[in-house]
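Reopening this ticket.

The earlier resolution said the output was attached, but the attachment link was broken on my side. Pasting everything inline this time so it's all in one place.
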Amino acid sequence: MNLSVSNWHLSLKLFVIAAVMFGFGYAMIPLYRAICEITGVGLITQRDEDAAEFARNTQVDTSRKVTIEFDANSRGTWQFKPKVSSVSVNPGELVTVVYQLTNTESRPTVGQAIPSYAPQVANRYFRKLECFCFKQQALEPNEVREFPVVFVIDPKLPTDVSVITLSYTFFEVPGQSLKPSDAAATPGAGTPAGTPARGT
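Inline output:
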């Protein structure tokens, strides 16, 4: 085999590898969605339409306490953190906590928060009335905003679960631009209806 044929084969292999990697990048989006559905990690968390009614009608279980730990990660140049690291709540109790997000870029950014739970089974019993993870969030350059999470823990939570970790990862959504209506439509600083969080 002469050198030119060898180079041609090498070029063909490199082209195939590049094509496969390019296709894999596109395939990652539906694959990630499928993994999220299986694991309970929502790419875009669906709003729990029944959570408000559930919170009004459920009974508070004063016989037990559950510790909720909060974690925050960001993919990009944002600063993202909860205002408290944990709270101790009774199942059935309405609770509000606040996350702070800072856009450190000198340009508008649009991002999405993805929640995850540990242990995973807690996902079924964590009922959110309000959460910034229900939609993409748009921030102006260097803007700092606070986002509430209003939730209630279902009293049917298994008794062997005494600690739940709620973790959010906030990442930029490529190709999205800030719309003037986005900032006004998204809940900002302030405390919504609910029980203020008690830091521990």
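Reporter confirms the inline version is readable. The beta strands are 66-75, 79-82, 86-89, 94-102, 109-118, 126-130, 137-139, 144-153, 163-172. Helices lie at 3-39, 51-57, 180-185.
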